[in-house]
Amino acid sequence: MLIVALPAEIVITARALPDPVAERLLGVSRIDRDRLEDAGGLGVEQVLREAAGVILFRRSDARSGQPTSQGVTLRALGGNAASRALLVLDGVPQSDPFGGWINWPAYDPAALAEVRIVRGGGSVADGPGALAGTIHMTSVVGAEIAGRVELGSRSALYGSARAGMALGSGSLMLSGYGGLGDGFVPVEASVRGLADRASPYAFGGGRMRWAGDIAAGVALEAAVGGFDDRRERGLAFTDNRTRGLDASLRLVGRGSWGWSALVYGQRREFESSFASTDRARTTTTRTALQYDVPGRAIGWSAEVRPPVGARTELRIGTDGRRMKGRSDEFGAYVAGQPTRDRSSGGQSAHAGLFAELTREEGRFTLSGTARVDRWTITKGALRDRLISTGALTSERFPDRSGWRPTGRIAAGAALSNRVALRSAAYLGWRLPTLNELFRPFRAGTDAVAANPALAPERLRGAEVGADWRGGGASLSLTAFANRLLDPIANVTLGTGPGSFPGVGFVAVGGSYRQRRNLDRIDVAGLEASGSWRLGEWTLGGSLSLADARVRAMGAAAPLDGLRPAQTSSFGAGASVGWEREGRSAALQLRHSGRAYEDDLNRLSLPAATTIDAAASWPLSRRIALTARAENLFDARVIAGRTGDGITERATPRSLWLGLRLSR
Hints:
Structural class: mainly beta
Shape: globular
């Protein structure tokens, strides 16, 4: 059978349905198990940064960054802390039910068999959150015992262990992991004061997953897992804590009629404290405390693949997710005590039907998809109580609902056994998060008002690509153009001092912003990735070029023609690895071009280049000595900048030494 894209190495990872044939017509890349196992305490988020076009909203990682700023996106569709790419684990969406950000410490890279990055919108079975694409994480299954422990710079410790065993008609996998450290001082030395200090962190989690046959041609997957993440932001009163619990059940049918059915539930608990310093940065005072931010989600998906011919694949299905959450917080602190108690939140849901038909005919493959979703936003409310008097003001926002159609057409041709061409055009969309809709917030002297009238974001896009494979080498090129309509951004509307609607008083030097739908963001770009294996050596590289521009009018007119916040126009990576008889060494280079902290492009984040290194040396058949270096040459990576001249850096050089056990 002829295919239109060059096949990747086949890896049996779990018991879900095979990857859709239509994915061969899209820009898909894979991170294999060896790379994930080698990551250690680096975390899934840092491994993802190695792939072309993957952007995390902040350059800080999950050990020092603010948890609510850790969204993930693809293809320069940034400018927002909520994720514009959908992250899924064994079919379950992972974005926070309240805020849309990603809890990266919830995942142990060593417990994953594969990460598959599917770029481009118009997703069929993944739901409306996949504006820029979908990042699929697949869990390890099978019988094995493995683990590692590492000691690192600044009193850091990381460990993970997993055990797989046969149980009944299937296999049970138990995994656990954890890490802690004293952290580094985020604020750069040139602007530090007595109030600045290191940012300690501690995280851990575990998961239990069983997969096996329960009847002829029917498999069951059952999983439950949880995590706990604590970190501080380098000042007193800036501690954060996130806890989560997930459970899921999936049935998979094999045979002439392939089918799957999934149900899941998710629970999140979040606490976060905020602080400010005096101008000399000698004293710290608390400015806000989110003492309870519960988020809940339940969801489902179902798919059937009827037998319609050897060269035709038909997928029909449905999926949906219902989310609710709120933020309970103290604010307007005076003399160290809160004067206001505020609660904001609501509920949202979406449910859709989809169909995808893919036909292979000779050297050509054609695919068409269609989807329609019903969305609702309900029970939105904002309550504000003056603590001293008990005076209460509350506002309830109108319920809203609507329908949103999406789809994708794609085509490709295999020119030879080595070269394939592909193209696609698509529509996509994203529902505003409950955080964006209902919660105002402050960051330092800046204040951002919520907007319960936000419209869903909509994407129109197209791409063309080519793939080549031969002689142990591969190369993939993709050119794309996207137009994001009604993108949600924090729009600057004024500066302090003064009182502003939705947030109250803003001090001198502070900015007043509101979440608003801009007219659009236009992005045109090119992605390239390749690899070459020659004996004991492996070379790899990736490149992302993207010209992203905001188009805006009215109150947001000053943003017209500017680059979206936190969005670089250039990114690149390169790696070289060596392996012989269990011994290995690798270097990984990552470059991120200049970006801007703010929507007005006044606060520049300079380009940065970092190099990581890793090595492994077997001590016995089961035990190996490992060494890792993050940011080997201690490059200056600016992760944040404020209007009053405070700069924050990402992780400095960190050295690790450890042992790895395998059987």
